[in-house]
Amino acid sequence: MAIKTILVSQPKPEGDKSPYFDLAEKYKLKIDFRPFIHVEGVGAQEFRQQKVNIPEHTAIILTSKNAVDHFFRIAEETRFEVPDTMKYFCISEAVAYYLQKYVTYRKRKIFFGKQTIEDLMDVMKKHKGEKYLLPCTDILNDKIPVTLEEHKINFTKAVLYRTVASDLSDLEDVYYDMLVFFSPGGIESLLKNFPDFKQNNTRIAAFGPTTANAVIKNNLRLDVHAPMPNAPSMTGAIELYVKDELKKK
Predict the structure, then answer these.
(1) d(Cα 69, Cα 101) in Å, to the nearest integer?
(2) What pLDDT score was predicted for residue 247?
(3) Alpha-carbon separation of residue 215 from 1, 55, 207 (angstroms)
(4) Are strands 155-165 and 37-41 parallel, antiparallel or unpaired?
(5) H-state helical runs in 82-128
């Protein structure tokens, strides 16, 4: 069966340029976008139950834009004025630049890695005397706290937001040839919304090892996996699959 319709479990890309739009045009595909999960902030009362004292900390580890938003939100809700002396250690340059939404970039001590916690450790090791706060989600990647502990970094974890399944009930009678996932939470949302989901001819594409494992763990068939040496991006992997299917026609 040739692929004609694809549902990507992420928000629609902003602007007119996206590899997904190019893919749709090149192969005459209908590609829709719909987030399967969304983030909800933890309230000030629930945060206080974690007994985390923000003023005790001299530095913040920021692993995503969500972490930035929810750190400043909870600071405001708990009436904590973030001091100018606070240091920020961001997982990537994109997250560091996003901080400009809340702080004057040039006047702050902001450090960043390339993309992973290991990259960031090279910078953090030079600042071992800091007491770090790690704002995070309820489903934080274990690798982050484990790496911090291995390097004997003094840090406190604070769950400031959680990832929850979106309501997809309006998709009940809609069929797609392929579903594209980027996190285990997306798979959980699919099965929570549609407990009787039968894969049949629906192809499932997964980005990253943890997402792929979630597909297999839930007894679903993994048809497309990225990144791969011949397809480092999700769109690249989908294109290879679509091409193969067209050859079989």
Answers:
(1) 9
(2) 82
(3) 21, 41, 11
(4) antiparallel
(5) 93-98, 117-124
Among residues 8, 21, 33, 23, which one has the least CA distance to residue 183?
8
On whether the CB atoms of residues 32 and 8 are closer than 8 A, the answer is yes
pLDDT on residue 29: 96
Question: What is the Cβ-side half-sphere exposure of residue 170, based on CA atoms within 13 angstroms?
Answer: 5
In three-state secondary structure terms, 9 is coil
Kindly list the distances between the CA atom of residue 136 and the CA atoms of 38, 40, 69, 130, 144, in Å, as whole numbers in the listed order. 14, 12, 11, 18, 10
Could you tell me how many helices (H) and strands (E) the chain has, helices first?
Answer: 9, 11
The model's pLDDT over 76-127, given as tens digits with 9 standing for 90+, comes to 999 999 998 999 999 999 999 999 899 876 666 999 888 788 888 988 988 8
According to the model, what pLDDT value does residue 144 have? 87
Cβ(60)–Cβ(132) below 8 Å: yes
- Write the DSSP assignment of 11-44 as a string of letters: PPPSSS--HHHHHHHHHT-EEEE--SEEEEEPPH
Query: Phi and psi of 152, rounded to 5°?
Result: 55, 45
pLDDT digits (tens, 9 = 90+) for 75-85: 999 999 999 89
**Which domains are assigned to the chain?**
1-36+235-249 (no CATH), 40-163 (3.40.50.10090)
User: 100: number of CA atoms within 13 Å, CB side?
Assistant: 7
Which pLDDT score is estimated for 105?
Answer: 67
Query: What is the DSSP track for 178-201?
Result: EEEESSHHHHHHHHHH-TT---TT
**Quick one: pLDDT at residue 104?**
79
pLDDT band at 42 (very low <50, low <70, confident <90, very high): very high
